[in-house]
Amino acid sequence: MRDLLLGCALLSHCTPNASEASEQMARFYFNLEGKQNVDDPGGLAFENEPQAFRAAQRLATDLASVKPALRGKTCVVVTRKDRLESYYLSV
Predict the structure, then answer these.
(1) What is the pTM of this model?
(2) Domain boundaries, the chain
(3) N or C, which end of the chain has less CB nearby within 10 Å?
(4) Backbone torsions φ then ψ of 8, nearest 5 degrees
């Protein structure tokens, strides 16, 4: 499951490349909670919350497609630790 989380297509489509990343970009962590629990130790940098939220939506959609047993039983949790904010999206 960890490989799926890290290798998900959303990561290559939604994250800026290293040359575009700056110190001012916020870091978001994409964890799974529920039937399957996975912690994202490194997180990903995004320019803003809507961009990170779209990535989380894509991850939830991809997980529901690849792992149907997680539907309705697992959430993608997007966390921004610098603000102690979390957003939950059902798979």
Answers:
(1) 0.72
(2) 2-90
(3) N
(4) -55, 145
